[in-house]
Here is the input.
Amino acid sequence: ETLYFNDFEKLFLKETKEFYQQMSRKEYTYTDYLHFIEQSFDCESKRLLHYLLPSTKDPLEKLTVEILVE
Here is the structure.
């Protein structure tokens, strides 16, 4: 788990944050942006379920909400 937290999770969250920051800067219609948010949450939920440790759930959800919704 230490390898996961120290090497993978930190980098994963950093890269995910940068990705969503970049994607949120694109021009969207209101409807398209809501659809993008919904797809993003679905994608991250599936990724959590299949590939990531449960401990990544809270930081990932916080990050995506912070960038995409707030």
Summary: The chain has a mean pLDDT of 94.
